[in-house]
Design goal:
2 copies of one chain form a homodimer. The first copy, chain A, has 2 domains: 2-122 and 301-330, Medium-chain alcohol dehydrogenases, catalytic domain (Quinone Oxidoreductase, Chain A, domain 1); 127-276, 3-Layer(aba) Sandwich (Rossmann fold), CATH 3.40.50. In chain A, the strands form 3 sheets. In chain A, strands 3, 4, 5, 6, 7, 14 and 15 form a 7-stranded mixed β-sheet that branches. By secondary structure, the first copy, chain A, is an alpha/beta fold. Chain A has 9 helices and 15 strands. Helices cover 24% and strands 26% of the residues of chain A. Chain A binds chain B through residues 58-59, 222, 226-227, 241-244, 247, 253-274, 277, and chain B through 58-59, 222, 226-227, 236, 241-244, 247, 253-274, 277.
Chain lengths: 332, 332
């Protein structure tokens, strides 16, 4: 069987371009002993992948030029030579950026019974949702009724951060990159205050939306957002550092916040994390999040591109604000 | 009785100058009912006082022009109208920057039995020592055997940080501002590696002194030191943010570290604090530190200026590197 796949053709410099990627066709072999063959249903594009396109030491090794990219994908088993996997089983793997694959089963999780669209397991009930969950509740040590600000609030992680915070009785502020996204945050996701960060001073918005200051700032963005938030934190506030999408395409290092010394007197905590630091909470997360999704307490938003040939555009779109909620590429 | 005292004559712009201060003579009244009259033995000058000379909101209110400054001082009771205080008692107060005072007893602590020079209760066994203790053990969550880097290592706080870390079986690196200080750190205080930060790249020194990286960076300095340390932290490293003396005299905000995003993948924690956030540990601290000082496990270093008229120079000297260990002004 054949499968189209996306290879990294050039390392992007600054904003990624379509020409940095190429579509190839691979032959997918029949599964050997202990292997399974999987047809991907949908694949994920995520901001962290930008970092892996740079040839440097990081928390995940860099992608190599000319090789097929990898990333989260949900698929269905079409042939199985492994006793634990049956035809039709949904599986979650890191073998995205391709339509199909044959592989040993290490690192591949059976989804079991699912309570939402398969693609939700790439988003709200998947890695971005768990990032929101552990970042807010563990790293951010959120307490009921606090005031929370999340940047990139219309994105895959931010949209879940805001909704979990609302579930916990918090006042929730969010920033996003367009008027439509701001309206969605307020009208559909229940944010108490939302603003377009292109529109005026971030600090002024924070003062308006949180007159008494911020207890938890969930940082997806870095740069100006971080500096403004530090300026408006309450004593003993926490800042989970989750991402810095404003800076991922920088070609030169960008100066950091000029007001870190504010953290001294206020006793602020800035703490970086990635979701895999909290793998021990995966079962708790899935149970909680499936419950919240099933009950309608958490809505998941998706932007869906169709076909592997559009995966590069979907990825690039993460940095131009093309997505509302989780960006997903449908491979059906 | 008369007492000389130091008033703030002008708010310093940039580096403080002698003319920003003036010496006046006050009359100290006899103590009224419930009051005590105290002759100060020694007073403290501390970097945090620079922040109070600026007219802005901070964790302590600003000093006012034309008023006598305040700060830590150890004195002896000369007249008492309070049943809990007797002539000759040593007391710790915030009525420094003056030779003597009369005051109600609120906010004045009797030292009780002392095991070291009175001035040690302004340093190793006082606020700077407790800052080191809570910053390293609580905020830094130090574990035995880790690798610790402290900047401003020859200062009142840094010199204690390094010695506590050695007590806990750690590898200890320190930076200071002169060859003499570096020699003192290595030869007298047992640092494993020390360097003059004027001498080459800080990051290169950290790589040499801690080939496997740093678990706890105790930041007294901010600026370049912080950026270099972030670059060389180990996974899940902690950075207590204690001070930013490199920046206290800046007249414009200075850009922060350009590599904060490194904290994400490594799961680093940067946490600001001031000693008063941990007042509940004061008794534990005094017991531990008096034990360590008595046993000789911790040495306290002091730089002593004589006479209230030299207090402004002592204070200014904090920013020019004039002190080794705690800067104290003798008022005997």
């Amino acid at each position: 069987m054949n499968s189209r796949a996306v290879v990294l053709q050039e390392r992007p410099v600054g904003m990624p371009k379509p020409d940095d990627f190429a579509i190839i066709t691979e032959t997918v072999p029949d599964p050997g002993e202990g292997e399974i063959q999987v047809q991907n249903v949908c694949m994920s594009v995520d901001p962290y992948m930008r970092g892996r396109m740079v040839d440097r030491k990081s928390y995940v090794p860099p992608f190599q030029i000319g090789e097929v990219l990898t990333g989260g994908a949900i698929g269905r088993v079409v042939k199985s030579n492994h006793p634990d996997f049956a035809e039709g089983d949904y599986v979650n793997s890191n073998w995205g950026w391709r339509e199909a694959y044959t592989s040993p089963t290490e690192g591949i999780q059976k989804l079991g019974e699912i309570v939402a669209d398969p693609s939700a397991y790439l988003g709200a009930i998947g890695m971005p949702g768990m990032t929101a969950y552990v970042g807010l509740l563990e790293v951010g040590a959120l307490k009921d009724g606090e005031t929370v600000f999340v940047s990139g609030a219309a994105g895959a992680v931010g949209s879940i951060v805001g909704q979990i915070a609302k579930l916990k009785g918090c006042r929730v502020l969010g920033s996003a990159g367009s008027a439509d996204k701001v309206a969605m945050l307020k009208d559909e996701l229940g944010f108490d205050y939302a603003f377009d960060y292109h529109d005026g001073s971030i600090l002024q918005h924070l003062r308006e939306g949180a007159p008494d200051g911020i207890d938890v700032y969930f940082d997806n963005v870095g740069a100006d957002h971080l500096q403004a938030a530090i300026m408006h934190m309450r004593q003993f506030g926490r800042i989970p550092l989750c991402g810095a999408i404003a800076q991922y395409n920088d070609t030169e290092p960008r100066p950091g916040p000029n007001n870190l010394a504010v953290a001294i007197g206020l006793g602020l905590t800035l703490r970086g994390f990635i979701v895999s630091h909290f793998n021990h909470l995966a079962d708790d997360f899935r149970k909680d999040m499936e419950g919240w999704v099933t009950s309608g307490q958490i809505k998941y938003k998706e932007t869906v591109y169709d076909g592997i040939e559009n995966a590069p555009d979907a990825f690039i779109g993460l940095f131009t604000g093309a997505n509302v909620g989780k960006m997903v590429v449908n491979l059906n």
